[in-house]
Amino acid sequence: MNCHDETCVTCSDEAVAVTVVRLLERDLALVDTGRGREVVSVALVEAEPGDTILVHAKEAIAVVREMRQ
Asked: Could you tell me the residue range of the domain that residue 40 belongs to?
C-alpha cells in the first residue's frame, strides 16, 4: 500500500474520543468532536446519546466506560 498523505487513515492506529449527540438511522450517529459535529458509523458498538466513543476512520470502535471505585 502506498500512502501519499502525511497520515494514512488506514495505516495509523489512531482513534479519537468524541461524544454522541444523537443516534441517526442506518447505524449512524451525530457526534461532537470538540471542533464541530460529524456523522460517524456506530454499527460496531452499542452507543447512546451522551456516551464517549472512540472513532477511527469514521467508524466507532469502542465505547469508553468510566471506571468507578
From this structure: 16-64
